[in-house]
Design goal:
By secondary structure, this protein is α+β, with helices and mostly antiparallel strands. The chain has two domains: 128 residues, Probable inorganic polyphosphate/atp-NAD kinase, domain 1 (Rossmann fold); 169 residues, Tumour Suppressor Smad4 (Sandwich). 28% of the residues lie in helices and 32% in strands. The protein is built from nine helices and 17 strands. Helix 1 runs parallel beside helix 5, helix 6 packs across helix 8 and helix 7 crosses helix 8.
């Protein structure tokens, strides 16, 4: 669970908040806004506005519009919904919190937030607010940029997220990712790239590069075991080329053991990276695929830029 590694002192949990609901979140039943409002009121949190944005852009606009109006913003959804709300909350006074309703809910697991709605609300009501870091991704040739709270994945897992069927995800949850991983296993090829880490360039071939702001990956796997979202660093995990059967065995070991040090093809930590692949490479941010932008990818840490609403440490 996230500890107070930042020099920014914790603030008390907000007593007033707005609620943003992602109706596309994992699960077959829609999120019950009335139930959330009742649970929050019982826990001492007044919900003053409820909105259901119909797209990630709508979620970002709603978050930005509410960020100066309420001290707290609760997002009922998964990691994608939190990521969509992220830009509107950066460097703003609002505290961003999650009510886990997605397929995997990595951020909830990272901060120790209970998965059951009743316990999550109660834990947030007795929680605190802390400034945490956010990762930034820039595609300079495309004039595009985005943010990530958890991680950026460049290579195999980017391909997996592109292949996930959204309708299947609604029905099967994590099973949709397993199916996409099998499809990516047979089609993905390692990529050659020049990777510059804090000014030092290396030429190498990669199957996977994970740039982590948090420890957990894909659920409860502490892939970047030393990562801390309030330390001013990005942690790097690399996987080089190998025969497909070797990689398959490696992934099974990771799932069973719950940890892996990676191939250590790059330094363990960085503040800035610039990746220049020989050809277009798939990338995911916080579990969602990014468009196939051309050219280099620049990743950096933006320290203490988000006020994160954290659960009680008990």
């Amino acid at each position: 669970m996230l500890e107070a590694a930042s020099t920014v002192l914790d603030d008390a949990a907000p007593r007033r908040a707005a609620l943003l609901i992602n109706d596309e979140a994992g699960g077959t039943r829609p999120v019950d806004a009335d139930r959330i409002v009742r649970l929050c009121r019982r826990a001492g949190i007044e919900i003053v506005d409820v909105r259901r944005p119909s797209s990630p852009d709508g979620m970002a606009r709603a978050a930005a519009g509410l960020a100066e109006q309420v001290p707290g913003l609760l997002v009922a959804g998964g990691d994608g919904a939190i990521n969509a709300a992220l830009p509107g909350c950066l460097n703003r006074p609002v505290a961003l919190g999650m009510l886990p309703a997605g397929t995997v809910n990595v951020w909830a697991r990272e901060i120790g937030l209970p998965q059951r709605l009743e316990r999550a609300v109660e834990s947030l009501a007795h929680g605190a607010v802390q400034a945490v870091d956010v990762g930034q991704a820039v595609w300079p040739e495309a004039g595009a940029h985005a943010y990530f709270l958890l991680m950026a994945g460049i290579g195999f897992d980017g391909e997996v997220t592109r292949l996930v069927d959204r309708n299947l995800k609604k029905r099967l949850g994590r099973g949709a990712y397993a199916q996409a991983a099998v499809a990516a296993y047979f089609r993905h090829e390692p990529y050659a790239a020049t990777v510059e880490v804090d000014g030092v360039a290396r030429r190498l071939r990669l199957t996977q590069l994970v740039v982590a702001n948090c420890r957990r990956y894909g659920g409860d796997l502490p892939l970047a075991a030393s990562a801390e979202p309030a330390d001013g660093w990005l942690d790097l995990w690399t996987l080089g080329p190998a025969p497909r059967l070797v990689h398959a065995a490696r992934f099974f070991r990771i799932v069973l053991a719950g940890a892996d040090q990676g191939d250590r093809l790059l330094p363990a930590r960085a503040r800035q990276l610039r990746i220049v692949p020989e050809h277009e490479v798939a990338i995911q941010l916080d579990g969602d695929p990014m468009p196939p932008y051309p050219g280099p990818i620049e990743l950096s840490i933006v320290p203490a830029t988000l006020r994160a609403w954290l659960p009680s440490r008990g």
